[in-house]
Amino acid sequence: MNQDQIRHYLQMYLVVGSVNCKASDPITIVKAALSGGVTLVQFREKGADALQGADLLRLALQIQALCRAEGVPFIINDDVDLALEIDADGVHIGQDDENAAEVRDRIGDRILGVSAHTVSEARLAVQHGADYLGIGPIYPTHSKDDAHEVQGTAILCELRENGIHVPLVGIGGITEERAAEVIKAGADGVAVISAITEAKDVHETVVRMKSKVGNTLRERITSQRLI
Ligand SMILES: Cc1ncc(COP(=O)(O)OP(=O)(O)O)c(N)n1
Ligand SMILES: Cc1ncsc1CCOP(=O)(O)O
Ligand SMILES: [Mg+2]
């Protein structure tokens, strides 16, 4: 998949697991998010009450089927074996997960996302074959217990200024109100858990957030052309 396609998929990126879906069930939330226009879905089944075994597999397959029906890529967090077993479109791994170069060998040309927190982690992830980098937490988050320290949007500027040109997605505490500043700082999209899974109206929240991302990307491109 080329970088332009990856950048498109990163624009409105839903990260979701059953643990994040308290107001409603995961299927209802994913359906509403897809109808609102999410461009990529990551299945992240993690935390104290996370599903396991057959229940986890069933939910992964159900969400995958919803994504396939909408032509939205579906990727798995951490679990490369699961991704291969169900023929997912890719995986997302972090610095404490399986080595990125080994994962690239195992998954072939599926999408590989890698979390990075510094310029050197980013450079190494790219050398190892990452298609995109997940950067954050940009803002405080209550969705990840072992989150890295908050990085702010400055990390996105720093990566771009240091020659990291691969697709980047910001993650961590991103809301409708904050989406534009993440894109202005250099991200190609926003990856979101709670602002979507805990929204009163998931469909409308995604529509509005995606529109903010799209408008800000267009403004950024226009202002770059003027320089
Ligand atoms: C898009 C995206 N970016 C970053 C992460 C975090 O990955 P990781 O650091 O491996 O932490 P866990 O999500 O595995 O707890 C992500 N999942 N997605
Ligand atoms: C998985 C992950 N990685 C860094 S922050 C985070 C959690 C993002 O969740 P939220 O959008 O609710 O802050
Ligand atoms: Mg991980």
Could you explain the architecture of this structure?
Helix 2 packs parallel to helix 3 (53-70). 47% of the residues lie in helices and 15% in strands. It has an eight-stranded parallel beta barrel with strand order 1-2-3-4-5-6-7-8, surrounded by seven helices. The protein has 227 residues and is of the alpha/beta class. The mean pLDDT is 97. It has a single domain, classed as Alpha-Beta Barrel (TIM Barrel). Bound molecules: ligand LCLJCK34, 4-methyl-5-hydroxyethylthiazole phosphate and magnesium ion. Magnesium ion binds at residues 77-78, 93-94, 97.
Topology (SSEs and partners):
Layout: H1 3-10, E1 12-16, H2 26-36, E2 40-43, H3 53-70, E3 74-77, H4 80-85, E4 90-93, H5 100-107, E5 111-116, H6 119-127, E6 132-135, H7 154-161, E7 168-171, H8 176-184, E8 189-192, H9 194-197, H10 202-226
Parallel strand pairs: 1-2, 1-8, 2-3, 3-4, 4-5, 5-6, 6-7, 7-8
Helix pairs in contact: 2-3, 2-10, 8-10
Bound molecules: the ligand Cc1ncc(COP(=O)(O)OP(=O)(O)O)c(N)n1, 4-methyl-5-hydroxyethylthiazole phosphate and magnesium ion (MG).
Residues 77-78, 93-94, 97 line the site of magnesium ion.
